[in-house]
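An example makes the point: we print one protein in full, the chain in one-letter code, the fold tokenised, without further comment:
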Amino acid sequence: MKYLTGKKIAPRPITKNTTIVELVEDTFFAYNSARLQEGCRLFAEKMLEDDVTVACSITGALTPAGLAQSCLIPLIEHGFIDWMTSTGANLYHDTHFGIGLDLHCGSPAVSDIELRQKGVVRIYDILFHYQVLLQTDAFYRQLITAPEFQRTMSTAEFHYRVGRYVKAREKALGLGRCSLLSAAHDLQVPIYTPSPGDSSIGMNIAAKALEGNGLNVDVSADVNETAAIVLAAKRAGGKSAVLILGGGSPKNFLLQTEPQIQEVLGIQERGHDYFLQITDARPDTGGLSGATPSEAVSWGKMDPEKLPDAVVCYLDITVALPILTAYAIARRRKRKVKRLYGQRGKFMLLLKEEYEKARQRRRRSKKSEAPRTHPSRRKD
């Protein structure tokens, strides 16, 4: 009977010698542990094939929890993440580490009134001094006055340029690579922020604008560049995969690349090929964070034929991502880093070319559909 063809549940006892691969494959049999096993296998066995371009979105306070150093940077270094979307807050808090500022483990069961009096800021059970914010603000306010920032640019270019300064600070302080921005700069992984004003980075850009600073973030460039990355991957005969950590605006911004290609630009495409999301949001409330891959099909975001290659794990990212990272590194060799940042110009030329072809097709179609008018006849 087809319903009883699944792997028999007969786990071996966990021992001190159990590896991460054995833990995932031999003990994660049911409920969301099974979904995580499916996600790990999807990521390692299909999403990390050489012809797949992998995008990753991050939402929630992941970098303050150290997940950039423990997971995201190793994934980038192994060539397992090719481009990213992120909240501005994650990149702002990532900068703390790169410029030598400290965050500490704490407790959520403390008095926030007392913390405020002592100048301590809390992100659930992460604690740091208020000066960390002020020093990071000062870093950005000085940085964006440099001549190279006195113009309009995409958030990918902005973050790439910021990453060079963070890398220099890491080196001067002898820290080693501890910032996602620094790693993304080194390996030319583009990072986009869909809501650049919604973070302390954006707040400092706005403050300097009051003084006449010339930096302006071009969100339209972001929309088109991300769509171009996906289209280029597909037109080269490859596939597109999405690794979604959380939800919110970075999730939608990553997924909307396909509706931008198909619906808005009129370019023929099918949707992303692989979909892996880790979230704790429910789908029945109508929020995007809980929106399922099958719902994404209705928008053209996901290729309908690829739904078997879509997994949602309803888990805490701080638990699931380290397991996924360790499993992938254990199971897969390093991939060649695609260095997509430096190829954005080429990708944009492809997007413009295909958009123009689509416009011409629409014009021809409208002409052929126009009602024919008969010439007036002369009356005898």
Q: What stands out?
A: The longest strand covers residues 52-58. The mean pLDDT is 92.
